[in-house]
Design brief:
It is a single chain. The protein is 50% helix and 13% strand. The chain is of the alpha+beta class. It has three domains: 50 residues; 54 residues; 74 residues, no CATH class. Strands 4-3-2-1-5 form a five-stranded antiparallel beta sheet, covered by helices on one side.
Amino acid sequence: MPHTKGDPATQDHAQRRRAGLFGRIRGNFLTGLIVIIPIGLTLYLIWVVTGWIDSWVLPFVPHAYRPDTLIQLYFGEDTQFGLRGFGLIVFLIFTTLVGWVAKGLIGRSFLHWTERTVDRLPVVRSVYTGLKQIAETVLSTGKPTFDRACIVEFPRAGMWSVGFVAGDTGGEVARHLGPDPFVTVYLPTTPNPTSGYVVFAKASEVILLDMTVEEAAKLIISAGLIIPEDQVEDATGVVPPRLRASA
């Protein structure tokens, strides 16, 4: 006997079809969000940062050479067209020229004279020295920074945090900590990794991770939602224990 419209089996089948259709639409929508959000946020950040640099650089460019002035000169005074990115180009060219001059004899002499002058100013000296050390540490191409990801017990025993190894602890800090080797670890916060904590931990208590620094950063920024898979296996197919920093 054929199913009628009011048959429970027919109604259940129709409900399953509608649920399947809505499920596919929902899945496609979520997939679209996964594709659009990273691209959109990346473009938005580039747009915002470029505009921020333009707002700082363009006031130093003579008015006759600014993009809006040149556009109005060639296309008429009624033309209104904002060209974003010109300040960024000027900044890149200017910074490259400054670096080229700084490598020469005259540039090095000028820098030495400037640093000696700044060294005589109490407050300015502290600010300049601190900013210079940070810039040299972060931007230096000859010295690696944060080349290993790790986990350490923080903020208390039994709780672990992901961090980045900055190197072996030295100087006065190491002298006060004792004979055991210590490492300096930076523990960024979530979701803003630019703030965090600097801890000095025993090398034997720091567990180095096989994941890259980029993968660890994604884990931190995503609040643990993006966890890279562990693909390190030995000849027997068993994942070995992590190597400790003291090894």
